[in-house]
Design goal:
With 141 residues, this protein is of the alpha/beta class. It is built from four helices and seven strands, in the order αββββαβαββα. It has a five-stranded mixed sheet, covered by helices on one side. α2 packs across α3.
Length: 141
């Protein structure tokens, strides 16, 4: 039986982009969900002020959450060991800033205790992290 040769037409030379687009959309959704969590793993409602200075470099950050737990760069730390641990991370204690992120519901006494521990260990440049007041919030103040 003779074989009949049929022309095959055009060859498949295009890349199927649908799987690539699917993967990219999934990655986009993952990054959109996780990006806000990358700022800090500790949930803190910061106080609102009119003047806010942006922090552009990695700094030593102390966080006090609603339960008055103290964290040094997202790691829990004992309040009595806070001063020496911060001093070990700071190269120039008199001039290098140390930032305190404190939940606005925390009593002032807890904030004062943390600031006192830092000052006793020689840290002189202490700054408080805040968020800017929005227009809606300005009407309430």
């Amino acid at each position: 039986m003779p074989q009949v040769m049929r022309p095959t037409g055009s060859s498949l030379s295009e890349i199927n982009m649908v799987p690539f687009i699917d993967v990219m959309l999934v990655l986009l959704v993952i990054f959109m969900i996780t990006a806000p969590m990358l700022q800090s793993g500790i949930k803190v409602d910061l106080p609102k002020t009119k003047t806010v200075k942006q922090i552009k470099q990695a700094r030593v950050i102390i966080t006090i959450d609603k339960a008055q737990r103290v964290y040094l760069n997202d790691k829990p730390v004992n309040i009595h060991l806070l001063g020496p641990e911060v001093k070990a991370k700071v190269t120039d204690p008199a001039h290098q800033p140390v930032y305190i992120r404190c939940d606005e519901g925390v009593p002032f006494g807890s904030f004062a205790t943390v600031a006192d521990e830092l000052q006793e260990s020689g840290i002189r440049n202490i700054s408080v992290v805040t968020v800017p007041i929005t227009e809606k919030a300005r009407a309430r103040y």
